[in-house]
Amino acid sequence: MPAMTMIPDLDIPGSQSTPIIRSDWAAGRLTMQGDSYPENSYDLFDQVIAWVQRFLSDEQRPLALELSLVYLNTSSVKAMMDIFDLLEEAHERGRPVAVTWHYDPRNERIAELAEEFKEDCSYPFAITPAKVNA
Amino acid sequence: MDLLSMRESYQRERVMLCFNGPISRSLIEEIGKALRNYLDTQQTAPAAAMDVFAAYIEMTQNIRHYARRQGYNDEQAAATVVVSQDDQGRYQVSAGNLVETPDGERLVTTIEGLEALDKAELKAAYKRQLRQPRDEASPSGAGLGLLDIARKSSQPMRASLQPLSAQQSFFSLTATI
Lengths: 134, 177
Prior knowledge:
The structure holds two protein chains of two kinds.
Chain A: E1 11-12, E2 20-24, E3 29-36, H1 41-58, E4 63-72, H2 74-92, E5 97-103, H3 108-118, E6 125-129
Chain B: H1 3-12, E1 15-22, H2 25-41, H3 46-70, E2 78-85, E3 91-100, H4 101-114, H5 119-130, H6 143-152, E4 158-163, E5 168-176
Antiparallel strand pairs in B: 1-2, 2-3, 3-5, 4-5
Helix pairs in contact in B: 2-3, 3-6, 5-6
InterPro entries (chain B): DUF6272 (IPR046239)
Protein name (chain B): Histidine kinase/HSP90-like ATPase domain-containing protein
Pfam families (chain B): DUF6272
């Protein structure tokens, strides 16, 4: 029986150009919210990709992504696509995975961005308008 | 320094924001924040404001990536960035920088090649580029960003190259959102 090794959960505070990123291994959940336009997105996303890979290989439980991402530069789009591809591979092996992307209905660009990701995914990918208080 | 003539020229050209000089990562963020605030006060539709911001980010980050790959010093890595409105009120994002002339010629050819593509073809090209391995960037290294700007533009992008020396030129790019 392999030794249990814990991978630490992510708790990355957001900045002007980077999203808040939190993972919850116990709940099988990864959340990201805010803008993402760092110059080198993989400096930020490599650790997220590593967490997702590890969760999908070490656990058999479902994984859910809860996203409230707003603007992504092309570098971040590429990194997110890598994450969605990992989910697609897991889904093809029969693993339950799901994405929910919450967007502000006042800005149709966010839903369009989410739709383009969804086109390449065959697992449940919900794009839902968030409640607006304004 | 004739500030009045600069001011009058900015007003004539409907310049909302301009910058000239070495551009750092934090400066890109600060100018970007000012741009977003300005667009917000102008009651710009959120989608249009995001397209303008996206064009600004992709252009300036392309310039930073290029200058870093070339090992340019601060002075060589300077960028000229202008956000303005055309006579029909459409937003224009322009950026210029020093490039090695053969790189600039390749860029201009790439951008002129995008002119023939409709929105569906641009989307297909964008998705293809997105699937390229991350270490195999196009020779200019700017492919994905340019495709993204082209997709957000209402007019074909305009690019030009003006010689500065035997080897180097000033590359200018304008996108109309």
